[in-house]
Amino acid sequence: MNTKTRLLTVLAGLAAASVALTGCLFTFIPDTGASSRPQVSATPEAEGVAADLLPFYTQRVDWSSCAGGDQCARIDAPLDWNDPSAAKISLSIIRHHATGTSHGSLLVNPGGPGASGVELIRDSLDYAVGGDLAKSFDVIGFDPRGVGGSTAVKCLDTKQMDAYLFDIPKSPRNTAAWRAEVMASGKTFAEACANNSDGILPDITTEFAARDMDLIRAVLGDKKLNYLGYSYGTFLGATYAKLYPQNVGKFVLDGAIDPAVSGLDVSVTQAIGFESALKAYMASCLKTRGCPFAGSVDDGMADLGTLLAKVDRRPLRAGDGRLLGADTMMTSIVAALYSQGNWTYLTQSLAGIAKGDPGVAFQLADFYYNRVNGKYQDNSYEAFNAYNCMDYPDDATAAQLSQAQATLKADAPVIAPYWNIDVNICDVWPAKATGVREPIHAAGAGPILVVGTTNDPATPYAWAQSLAKQLDSGILITRVGEGHTGFNKGNSCVDDVVNRYFVDSAVPGGDVRCAG
To answer: Is the N or C terminus of the chain more exposed, i.e. has fewer CB atoms within 10 Å?
Structure first.
C-alpha cells in the first residue's frame, strides 16, 4: 500500500472501503415518521457517577431536525477523562428513531479508526443495520473524538495531502535514502497534525472514545448500552466492555480485532490476509472474460507481481497529473479486496494498468481515501493515524522486524515488497502512545456476539476466534466466505442470529457456523 506508516494497514473504515464501488456509495434511507417525534432529551442516567463527571453525565441533549427527519445534537465530553475539569470537547451524534416499536437505543460504529458514524447513519442506514434493527431500535451514530463533526484532528490541506499520499520517493525502494525520504514526509505530516489540532492528539485514544460512549449512553437515559461495532469498532466495543462490564447490554462485534496483538503483528497478519484474498480474487478472475492474467492461480499471482514491479520502475501518469507507483497500485488492490462485490473493478483496474492506463486504479485509491473530485471528504486518514499512534506502542525489536519481513516474504510474496513494515510514522508522532495491547475479558458483562468471516482480509478470522475466547461471555458467529465483516452481507444465517439477539434477546446456546 501507499504506506507512509506500518500501521496505515490497520483497518479502513467500513463505510469507506467495503461497499460496492458505484457512482453513489450510499443508499439514502428516509425516515418514516421521526420528524413528528418530540425533540427532547430523556432524563440522564447518572447513578454512581463520580462528582467531577456529573456536569457531563447530567447534561441535557438539545436535539434538532436534520437529514430528512433524523435528529442531530452535540454533547460535551472531557478532553482528558483523567482530568475532566481541564478542558472540553464536542461530540457529534445522530438519532434515527425506530420505524416500529422501539426496543431502546442502538449505538453503531463503522470502524476505521476514523470513520464517521454520523455519516453512516445519515446516508446509509440500511447498510449499517438492516431493516429489522432500523424498525426495532433508535439507531444512534456518533463521530468519535478526533473524527468528522466532533472535535477533530486536522493536518494537511488537499494539495499537501495529495503530495503526502501520492508523491513517489526519488530514491530506490528499500534503500537508506528511500527510508529517510519516507520518514521525512511522515514527520512533516505529523508536525502538521500537531500544529493544526489544538493540542488534542494525546487524548485521541480508544480508551477515551470508549468512555465517551458511556457518556452517550447516560445522556440518552439508557441504563445499559446496546452496541453494534464493525472492524475497528470491535476494539472500541471490547474496550468499553472492559471498562464498563456492568453497563454492557446487547453487544455485537463484527470483523473483530484481537486486542492483544501488537501493531507489527497486526500489519503482518493483514498482509497475509490480503494475499489470501488476492488469491481468491485471482481464481475468480481467471474464469472470467477480460481478466488480464492466464494460466494457474500461481501463474496469475506471479504475473501480478511482475506488473507491480514494472509500475514501481516506471510509474504511470493519470489525466490529473498524478503518478501511479507500486504503492498506490497496492492501495487500489487492497481497496477492492474489502468486498467481493468490488472484484470486477479490480479486474478493470489491473487490465487498464497492463495497457498503461491507471484511471480505474486511481478511482479505487481515491475511494480508499474518500477523495472525490480531487477533494478529501473527511478527516478519516488523519484520525486513523492519530488513534493508531496512541493505541499501538511501537516496541518492535530489530529481531522481530527481521522475522516479520521473513514471514511476509514467505506467506505474502506478492504484497510483501510494498508492505512497508520498516517505516513507521508513529516513530515521529508528537504524542507518546498510551495504549496497552492485552487480552480483554470483560468479566461480568452479558453475552457478547463476535462475528468473523473466514477469509476476511482486513480482520482475519483468527482474530475473531481469539476475541471470542478472550471475552468471558464471548460467542463466536462464523460467516464462511469472502470479504470484510459478516452481518448484513447477504448471509441469512448470520443476519438471523444477530437480529434475533438484538430484537428478541435470543442468545445462541454456543458458537454458530454459517456457511454459504
So the answer is: C
Nearest to 219 by CA among 8, 428, 59, 397: 59
The one catalytic residue in 231, 267, 349, 466 is: 231
By three-state DSSP, how is residue 480 classified? strand
User: Whose grid coordinates read 455485537?
Assistant: 252
Q: Which residues contact 147 (CB under 8 A, 6 or more apart)?
A: 112, 113, 114, 115, 116, 153, 378, 379, 380, 383
- Catalytic, 484? Answer yes
pLDDT level of residue 220 (50, 70, 90 thresholds): very high
What is the arithmetic mean of pLDDT over 428-454?
A: 97
Q: How far is CA 386 from CA 144, 200, 327, in A?
A: 12, 10, 22
Residue 416, pLDDT above cutoff 70: yes
d(CA 150, CA 143): 6
The conformation of residue 146, written as its DSSP 8-state character, comes to B
Q: Is the Cβ–Cβ distance between 260 and 466 less than 8 Å?
A: yes
Residue 440 DSSP SS3: coil
Q: How far is CA 60 from CA 89, 141, 219, in A?
A: 16, 18, 7
Q: What is the pLDDT of residues 244-259, one digit of tens each?
A: 999 999 999 999 999 9
C-alpha distances in Å from residue 505, one per residue of 18, 197, 499: 28, 42, 9
Number of other residues whose CB lies within 10 A of the CB of residue 502: 25
What pLDDT does 516 receive?
A: 67
**What residues are paired with 512 via a beta bridge?**
477
pLDDT digits (tens, 9 = 90+) for 56-88: 999 999 999 997 889 999 999 999 999 999 999
Per-residue pLDDT tens for 460-490? 999 999 999 999 999 999 999 999 999 999 9
Most distant CA pair in the chain, distance: 69
Distances (CA, A) of 45 to 48, 57, 83, 224, 404: 9, 7, 21, 9, 47
Which one of 312, 327, 456, 495 is the catalytic residue?
Answer: 456
Q: Which three cell numbers stand for residue 23?
A: 457512482
All 3 cell numbers of residue 427? 516513530
